[in-house]
Amino acid sequence: MSESDHEFDLFVHPLVHESMAKNEACNQQFKVGEWPRWDYDDEQSTLTFSKDGRLQVLAEVAIVGTTEGGQWQWSWANGNVPSERRALIDQVRAFGERNGWTKLTAQFLDGDEYTGWEMTSGAAHILDAKGSYRFPTEHGYAYCIYRDLRWIV
Q: Residue 2's pLDDT is what?
């Protein structure tokens, strides 16, 4: 492990716990983990949480990255994500460049779901997000941060 990787690990470890606390606060305030249905709107960059066909909570989100087949990919490196939606997460890459942390600047990382949570926790901290969420995709998972959450009802 390089010194840069070690520095990054020291930076991000407490952020995983910070992110867990933020998510717990979102769960308490908005019951995010309790709604039986969620829907992601790619064009609006929103997650809606609902029950019995009634929308309950709207979350404005930014996709941080995805895991698939043992790899993590940052959304800023994903050509399927429109540039205007990658711009926020591009700030994470720029932060990584300033600090010399390749885990924030490499398009792909070998990794698993913990890698996804770790990178998302770092992004949530850097961007002062309210929390984070993971949802399944066709081949893996997408990780996002909450930019805003509000009750719809």
A: 66
Rounded mean pLDDT, 8-31: 96
Give the three-state DSSP class for 142: strand
DSSP three-state, residue 47: strand
Q: How many helices (H) and strands (E) does the chain have?
A: 3, 7
CA gap 95, 99 in Å, rounded: 6
> Is residue 24 over pLDDT 90?
yes
pLDDT cut 70: percent of the chain above it: 99
CA distances for 28 relative to 23, 32, 34, 37, 146, angstroms: 9, 8, 10, 17, 15
Domain residue extents for the chain: 3-151
Residues in the chain: 153
